[in-house]
């Protein structure tokens, strides 16, 4: 009996050791995971404030521009406020971290909120939209932006968009990405319309448009606008450069 008791005690001891080992491994894994999470949080926080610092520095650089009326893009595609002043764009050190900063001119793009139908047609042609598709996109775009509920011939208002869970904007664009919400620029309904819900053709069109459009600005700065924008506006880029 004594030998049997010792055997049972040994088995119990082994099971206790196994259980303690499992608990120790679990605790160790939890500590490592939490430690890694804390390091990631600290790094994310540091990088966030490095980016904010660079952003604030860029704002100060822009605010100190002695003559905002002569901004332009140089031959290397870098935004400059004048020929004598060094550009801000580039890699900068902020709190020991390296941050790459790019300053661009919103008025080098077409503002969707003041874009007329002629320029929009030229823009869609530049993006490669087939001629037979352009009338629909013109009408749906204008119906989205205008303040009334009246349908254009090929347009769309609330009665169309309600099936997708939202209404026509009937107001100003808040961002260029709103194009993904407009009839003709997406394909299927979902809880939240996004780029992934767009047809391949629509994604290609919007991808070509996004670098050329904005929801801000009062007009076009011909000194910083790319050739594509000048062509859309019917301006001669060579004559402007001269």
TrEMBL record:
Protein name from the UniProt record: T2SS protein K first SAM-like domain-containing protein
Chief place where the protein resides: membrane
Originating species: marine sediment metagenome
Protein family (similarity comment): Belongs to the GSP K family.
Mitochondrion in keyword set: no
Domain T2SS protein K first SAM-like: 109-185
InterPro entries (UniProt xref): GspK (IPR005628), GspK_central_sf (IPR038072), T2SSK_SAM-like_1st (IPR049031)
Subcellular location: Cell inner membrane
GO cellular component, one term: plasma membrane
A Pfam family per the record: T2SSK_1st
GO-annotated biological processes: protein secretion
Keyword terms: Cell inner membrane, Cell membrane, Membrane, Protein transport, Transmembrane, Transmembrane helix, Transport
């Amino acid at each position: 009996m004594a030998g049997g008791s010792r055997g049972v005690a040994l088995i119990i001891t082994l099971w206790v050791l196994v259980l303690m080992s499992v608990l120790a491994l679990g605790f160790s894994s939890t500590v490592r995971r939490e430690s890694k999470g804390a390091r990631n949080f600290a790094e994310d926080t540091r990088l966030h404030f490095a980016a904010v610092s660079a952003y604030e520095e860029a704002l100060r650089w822009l605010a100190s521009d002695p003559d905002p009326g002569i901004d332009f893009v140089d031959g290397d595609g870098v935004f400059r406020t004048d020929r004598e002043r060094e550009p801000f764009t580039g890699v900068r050190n902020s709190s020991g971290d390296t941050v790459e900063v790019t300053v661009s001119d919103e008025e080098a793009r077409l503002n969707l909120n003041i874009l007329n139908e002629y320029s929009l047609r030229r823009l869609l042609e530049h993006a490669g939209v087939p001629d037979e598709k352009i009338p629909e996109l013109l009408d749906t775009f204008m119906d989205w932006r205008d303040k009334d509920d009246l349908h254009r011939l090929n347009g769309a208002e609330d009665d169309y968009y309600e099936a997708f869970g939202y209404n026509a904007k009937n107001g100003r664009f808040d961002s260029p990405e709103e194009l993904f919400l407009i009839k003709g620029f997406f394909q299927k309904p979902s809880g939240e319309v996004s780029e992934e819900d767009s047809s391949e053709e629509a994604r290609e069109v919007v991808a070509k448009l996004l670098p050329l459009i904005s929801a801000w600005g009062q007009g076009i700065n011909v000194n910083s606008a790319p050739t594509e924008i000048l062509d859309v506006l019917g301006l001669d880029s060579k004559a402007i450069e001269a």
